[in-house]
Write a structure and sequence with these properties.
single chain, alpha/beta, Rossmann fold, 5-stranded parallel beta sheet
Amino acid sequence: MIVRFFSIVLLLYLIGFIVFSVTLGSSAGGNRTDGIVVITGGSGRIEHGVDMLAKGYAKRMLISGTDPSVTKADLVHRLGGRKRLVGCCVDLGSESVDTRSNAEEAKRWLDKHHYSSFRLVTSDWHMRRARYEFRRVMRDKYRLVPDAVHTEPRFVTLFGEYNKLLLRRIAVVFEL
């Protein structure tokens, strides 16, 4: 009986991992929002957010989780230009250290600017957990448009992210 129970649990875990792996986040396309929130930590995220901002899909952008030593000049150098766009419309947030605190930092930024919608930019493999954390922090106060940056994640990355998502959901259920 115990072996059957654990076999079913293992089977459900594996099916969940497969579904997670083949249904990664995708690009949001041309949906307009008030703001853009980019979570640091993966290649192409900031560049994608800046491209969306330059195309007029939002008024302003927050880069959440920025190292406190990073300046707008550093960002302009990294992007190979776009000084005017970065100077007027990009905010660097350095208060967050993980996905949950990214959501808290973004909520304060959205409140400050009186925005009602935002485009969330992160890697495709990270989007599901990021959306979960942002919705938990923000409830239904803001319209969230997920905009995942396409990557080619390795098995280890997917496996780790799937387990983080499961553990976070379990922690929320048990209020840990």
